[in-house]
Amino acid sequence: MSRAGQLHSLSAQLFFRVLLSLLAGAAVFFALFSAGNLLVDRSVYGRPFAKQMADHEFARLQAYVEQEQITTADLDRLDTWCSRADKLYLTIYRDGVLLYVSPQPWLVSTDPADFDPDSENPECAHLLTLSDGTVTRVFLYCAVGNMFYFWVAAAAGALAFLTFSLCFITFVRRKLRYVKQLKAELDILASGQLDYPVTVHGTDELGELAAGIDQMRQSILHHRDTEDQIRTANSRLVTAMSHDLRTPLTSLLGYLELLDQGRYADETQLRRFTRQSLEQALRIKTMADQLFEYFLVYASEEERPDMTLEDADTIFLQFWQEYTFALESQGFIVNLAFSPLRGRVEINLELLRRAFDNLYANLLKYAAPSHPIEIICRREGDALRLCLVNGVSPRQDRRESTNIGLNTCRRILQLHGGSFDSAENDGTFCVELTIPLLAYPAEEQAEAVPLPF
Hints:
Elements: H1 3-7, H2 10-42, H3 47-68, H4 78-84, E1 88-94, E2 97-101, E3 125-129, E4 135-142, H5 147-190, H6 205-261, H7 267-298, E5 308-311, H8 312-329, E6 334-338, E7 344-347, H9 349-366, E8 373-380, E9 383-391, H10 404-415, E10 419-425, E11 428-436, H11 442-447
Parallel strand pairs: 6-8
Antiparallel strand pairs: 1-2, 1-4, 3-4, 5-7, 8-9, 9-11, 10-11
């Protein structure tokens, strides 16, 4: 897999989604934690709230002093009151002299100077009157603890985890929704509706899986259509062959019956019946050979024949010079126009010879000797194009109605990656075929010798 493919893989997407979810959760946590701490600092730990708590506890302290009749001499009795209260710290001064400090080990700092009533926390300073009438200044500090900070951190953590979960679950749900969609579409395909397209999203493994399923669907459709076409073509071929075979078979049976019953006038008529029977038998054999050749070529639909690289100029010039000589010896006029091809072809010599033999046989059977046969071979781009043009013989009774030879040629050219077309118009029959041309390697181009055209 390429680097770009690895970045778009499902594992990479999962990693980046987890990372983004963690970043989103961390951002939510720090934002909420900072805002919550600021709110707690300005409310619970602010001066108004601290003064309210200090005033409340001081009123309780003053009532306790009056009730217990505490004087300057027995200030240590305040330890009992301080121990009953929750997180209180008390210092008592008279004329700047420290008289009492409450024991509170939970405080981080135990330096009484930090709780001087003349410090920067005047809301915690009060005037306490003892039972003996002594007026003292006290610093009463009420600590609410870190409980509010804990709850702020817990709430921020919970919301951060919720944010992470939502971001990650959104990604997972989207992928699961796509998987469910693919399953539903596979169920549709399994029911036989192969025309239903498979949805392809993304370039990750799921997208590649969907693309592979859709490609397999199209391949099955192609094979099914091809099989239908072949089945239809074979059915038509069998129907046409049965019709075409009926005529020579009927004639052959008729002549054989005449011979068997001895219904001939003389030796000359006997030889004529025998010759006619032989001609009809040869027609039947020719049709059988063509039919065998047709099914032989179409037998393996996907199997590609063994190919060899050949020089295009040498092979095609040799073939069509031979056919030209043979046609001219049969009384045909042939105009061979052969342009330099300067390339190589990847061919199976046996199959290509079979296709050209079929074209040659068709020319012998159906070409009009009075009309010149044009054979043109030239290069067009990266392909070789061969054109055969001939006049059609007026003897329609000899025309090949099943087109087995032409269909065989078409299949052979398809196996070579080329094309084959034939058409008849106004008494002229034309065949055009193409085969891909391959360039020579650089060293062969330097050594190539031009052909004498």
